[in-house]
Write a structure and sequence with these properties.
Rossmann fold; about 280 residues; 12 strands; alpha/beta; five-stranded parallel beta sheet; seven-stranded mixed beta sheet
């Protein structure tokens, strides 16, 4: 039975990146649809659910992508509502690569210190990747300072994280000049997950954090989000601090992405969301 992956993208044109990875991960045929919404996805789901017998449904799976992470979350909910009983196929959501990238970043940090109780800072924490990195750090028991230029946005994101993660130790923090010192004080892990072109810290600023052990910059577009960290850094030691750049994290991200797609075809009831992808990443590590 051929393995069929159905790509639902919330953008008008399905992402080429996700299509290439799907093929490289071993799916036999890829059906790609753009402009998918909660209103038009149901009939497409029915096409995936009702064209094969129950014993063969594990050979069909759905991948949700697109640049809007929250739209992807809503699409996953609608798809799950469409399934009933054994009539379902496995589904993975990785809008804009946010889940696989966040999982890879957290796994990189976990290689160098126990995350339980670790003091961590996520810069750009209200963005799609930053929010999910903060979520996964909280799942691991870290104390997370979720930082934003606007404290109100950080507070809202922390409130949402407390709903997603029982007992989450998350605190809103600022990246403004006035609040930056308090945000970084005592940090052992710093993950920068801002938009391209945003530099959060100078080299002098992160080097001044005496407690710092791991530094991860997920921005591959100059200027660096963390000055002095190179995109290709992979457990590179700089002034006694272990550094990862976007490309250094990217190899593990691709490994996780491909493994997740392969897992979709192991059964017809897999749901690979943020936490499930993180669990898979931990197994790979």
């Amino acid at each position: 039975m051929k393995r069929l992956l159905v790509q639902f993208d919330t953008d008008p044109h399905p992402a080429v990146f996700d299509r290439v990875v799907a093929i490289d991960a071993g799916c036999d045929h890829l059906f790609s649809y753009g402009g998918i919404t909660t209103e038009n996805v149901v009939s497409l789901c029915h096409g995936a659910m009702f064209t094969r017998g129950l014993q063969d449904l594990k050979s069909t799976a759905i991948f949700i992508g697109g640049s809007d992470a929250e739209a992807g979350v809503e699409l996953l909910k609608r798809i799950q509502e469409t399934f009933f009983g054994p009539m379902r196929v496995s589904v993975m959501v990785d809008s804009n690569g946010c889940n696989t990238t966040a999982a890879a970043a957290v796994q990189c940090a976990a290689r160098h210190l126990p995350l339980g109780g670790a003091e961590s800072v996520v810069l750009g924490g209200t963005g799609p990747v930053g929010f999910r990195a903060a979520q996964l750090l909280a799942v691991e028991g870290a104390t997370v300072r979720l930082a934003s230029r606007y404290i109100e946005r950080a507070e809202a994101a922390c409130a949402r994280l407390r709903q997603l993660v029982d007992g989450a130790k998350v605190l809103p923090a600022e990246t403004s000049d006035e609040g930056l010192a308090a945000t970084l004080d005592g940090a052992q892990v710093i993950i920068a997950a801002g938009a391209a072109g945003v530099q959060f810290l100078t080299g002098d600023e992160w080097r001044s954090v005496e407690s710092l052990k791991v530094l991860i910059d997920l921005n591959a577009v100059p200027p660096a989000g963390l000055q002095g960290v190179e995109p290709g850094d992979k457990a590179t030691e700089r002034d006694g601090i272990v550094c990862y750049g976007a490309l250094g994290v990217g190899g593990l991200k691709m490994k996780i992405h491909k493994a997740a797609i392969e897992q979709l075809f192991s059964a017809n009831d897999r749901v690979l969301d943020t936490v499930a992808i993180h669990r898979l990443a931990s197994e790979l590590a």
